[in-house]
Amino acid sequence: MLRQSIRRSAAPLSKITRSAPSTQLRCLSDLSNDQKTTHFGSKTVLESEKEKLVGQVFSSVASKYDIMNDVMSLGVHRLWKDHFIRKLDAGARPGGRPLDFIDVAGGSGDIAFGLLDHAKARFQDDKSTMTVVDINPDMLKEGEKRLLDTKYKNDDRISFLVQNGEVLDQIEDNSKDVYTVSFGIRNFTNIQAGLNTAYRVLKPGGIIGILEFSKVDNTVVDLAYQNWSKFLPVFGQAIANDFDSYQYLVESIQKFPKQEDFKSMIQEAGFYVPEPGYENLTFGVAAIHIGIKL
Ligand SMILES: C[S@@+](CC[C@H](N)C(=O)[O-])C[C@H]1O[C@@H](n2cnc3c(N)ncnc32)[C@H](O)[C@@H]1O
């Protein structure tokens, strides 16, 4: 898997060197005997190919990331993220602060900066650390660009790591207090492996918080939402000259497990999931799942 570790203060993202053979190529050859398939949107692809295909999507949309999210959610993703951050802190572990946060698939930095802002505003906490992990260097570059516009630009509490969230082999076992993944886990090739890894890196008492597109629980809203979704690739073409990536994003939402099924996967990883297990946002267009490593 990708092994570039980017300490912002030590190595500007613009100077990332990509060693050959690339991770994607290495993965393909490692897994050449593995004929297992998975979905890439509505297509069936080899598991070994999915990482590369998802990488292409996010490299393509990285520079238009905000527009993409605003179009896909009509701007509501900002409210969902704010709510997610508040909810996580409301349930923060009793061990107190500072905390070691890890935000996986966190390229944009939205959740990472939001969690630190909230920690400061609510707990006067300016000691907690944040590791932002993403498989895609282009997305992490966007996150670092944004960092320069925040008060954290000279703050070495934030580090960036290019790595696959299914593996996180540069993150020690039992080392993090709060693990977040926002609109990222549905892109993992093996979602269960990602959840198992989250369990591994969290300390006992640590919390996992997942914000993800989900299944609408209201027939009328669902009909409107399905119709709206059909236009998203068209908007993608008009705004970002990219029909296919937006088509993938819509299909990846459709393929993501139902709330109850996803709750079971979180439990399967070992987490205790407080009832009811998830909170639907906007009739289930998105949902927040919380689990605790006991
Ligand atoms: C829709 S963006 C979400 C970014 C951010 N978390 C947010 O909420 O704005 C999805 C991100 O997941 C990342 N991603 C996809 N598969 C991944 C994996 N296996 N491990 C880590 N990151 C992954 C993509 O590179 C992309 O940056």
Topology:
Elements lengths: L4 E2 L16 H8 L6 E4 L2 E4 H15 L3 H9 L3 H14 L9 E5 L5 H14 L5 E6 L2 H11 L10 E5 L13 E7 L8 H11 E12 L5 H22 L2 H13 L3 H10 L9 E4 L4 E7 L2
Parallel strand pairs: 4-5, 4-7, 5-6, 7-8
Antiparallel strand pairs: 1-6, 2-3, 8-10, 9-10
Bound molecules: S-adenosylmethionine.
The site of S-adenosylmethionine (SAM) has 21 residues, from helix 2 and helix 5.
List keywords for this structure.
294 residues, alpha/beta, Rossmann fold, 8-stranded mixed sheet, two-stranded antiparallel ribbon, 10 helices, 19% strand, globular, disordered N terminus, binds S-adenosylmethionine, ubiquinone biosynthesis, ubiquinone, EC 2.1.1.201, SAM-dependent_MTases_sf, methyltransferase
Give a quick rundown of the structure:
One of its GO terms (biological process) is methylation. The chain is of the alpha/beta class and 294 residues long.
What does this structure look like?
Pathway: Cofactor biosynthesis; ubiquinone biosynthesis. GO terms for molecular function: 2-methoxy-6-polyprenyl-1,4-benzoquinol methyltransferase activity. S-adenosyl-L-methionine binds at residues 108, 134, 164-165, 182. Its main location: mitochondrion. This protein is α/β, with parallel strands linked by helices and 294 residues long. It has one domain (5-218, 246-292): Vaccinia Virus protein VP39 (Rossmann fold). It has helices at 23-30, 47-61, 65-73, 77-90, 110-123, 137-147, 191-201, 219-240, 243-255, 259-268; strands spanning 5-6, 37-40, 43-46, 100-104, 129-134, 158-162, 176-182, 202-213, 278-281, 286-292. The strands form 2 sheets. Strands 1-6-5-4-7-8-10-9 form an 8-stranded mixed β-sheet, sandwiched between helices. Helix 8 (219-240) packs antiparallel against helix 9. The radius of gyration is 18 Å and the shape is globular. The two termini are 29 Å apart. The protein binds S-adenosylmethionine.
